[in-house]
Specification:
alpha/beta; Rossmann fold; 2 domains; 5-stranded parallel sheet; 11 helices; 5 strands
């Protein structure tokens, strides 16, 4: 397979940056004095994450909706942003170095289900870890769900990436930690690697920089 590959598409969370998704709901629960499970159910019932990560809600509308759902109209923007960003942990510098080496040989792309608040914070974490100020300096192009209006594992998002990047599925490798996202890409003929902790992209891609 490796001989065919000209392009590598990376997921963001738990592929490049370490994350702990429940931390966001836990943070909101602690702030509003509710149970974590109750907050998770409220967010799920109101379809909050999908709406934000497909761009149906912009940043201001997202924060307004959080205040409404949790009945905390007095929360300021910074409080909500901080709680939302708690799930973002660290970016090991070795992963950044790997991306820089890979880009000498391959076209690199990022494909993430994400939100503008998270991307702003990821850029801050990236700069602190490596001195690289923005994700788009590591990739040929970023494909972000909130800008595209569609999320993984919808086939449409992969087809958009292939078309807009001008690349072929059979020459492309996709790495993601979510099995459904991997399955959807495979169905379109994209080569895939299911990233599963504790194994990291340093292990999965070591032969690609040898």
């Amino acid at each position: 397979m490796q001989e065919q590959i000209k392009n590598i598409i990376f997921d963001l969370g738990d592929v490049i940056i370490n994350i702990d998704v429940p931390l966001a709901a836990r943070s909101f629960a602690e702030l509003c004095g509710q149970e974590e499970a109750e907050v998770i159910e409220l967010f799920r019932e109101k379809d909050l994450f999908r709406q934000f990560e497909t761009g149906e809600l912009d940043e201001a509308a997202f924060r307004s909706y959080v205040r409404q759902i949790l009945k905390k109209e007095d929360w300021d923007d910074a409080t909500i942003n901080k709680a939302w960003n708690t799930l973002l942990l660290d970016i090991p510098p070795a992963r950044i170095e790997l991306l820089q080496k890979l880009r000498e040989r391959y076209n690199l792309f990022l494909l993430s289900n994400t939100s503008p608040i998270h991307i702003t914070e990821v850029n801050a974490i990236l700069e602190k870890a490596s001195g690289v100020p923005r994700l788009d300096e590591l990739f040929n192009k970023l494909f972000l769900s909130y800008e595209m209006g569609v999320m993984k594992p919808d086939h449409a998002i992969y087809l958009k990436v292939l078309e807009e990047a001008g690349i072929k599925a059979e020459e492309t490798l996709f790495l993601d930690d979510n099995a459904a996202n991997i399955q959807a890409a495979s169905e379109l003929g994209i080569h895939t690697i299911h990233v599963q902790k504790p194994t990291t992209i340093l292990d999965y891609l070591k032969d690609y920089v040898a």
